[in-house]
Amino acid sequence: MPELKTLILFAVTAVAEILGCYLPWLWLREGRSAWLLLPAAVSLAAFAWLLTLHPTAAGRTYAAYGGVYIGVALLWLWAVDGIRPTLWDAIGGSVALAGMAIIMFAPRS
Question: 10 Å Cβ neighbour count for 12?
């Protein structure tokens, strides 16, 4: 179960980061309200805080998180941007997630 908890925590962290970057993108690229910067800042603060909840070393957490971020970003591409990921997107995301699993769940002495 700790593996599932880690994956869920990484996924929530990724959503917080993506949302924190997507809202300013909407303001800058789509001409939306500058008020979107407030929830974006809160989301990015939550992202930083969520990364501190992992019990392993910061560098290992950041390295492994990158793999989950890629997977969540591809889901965002599909769900929010309405663009279905390609086979190559899926393969790349799978490789990234495999790397995350090796980094986070390898036996340690």
Answer: 16
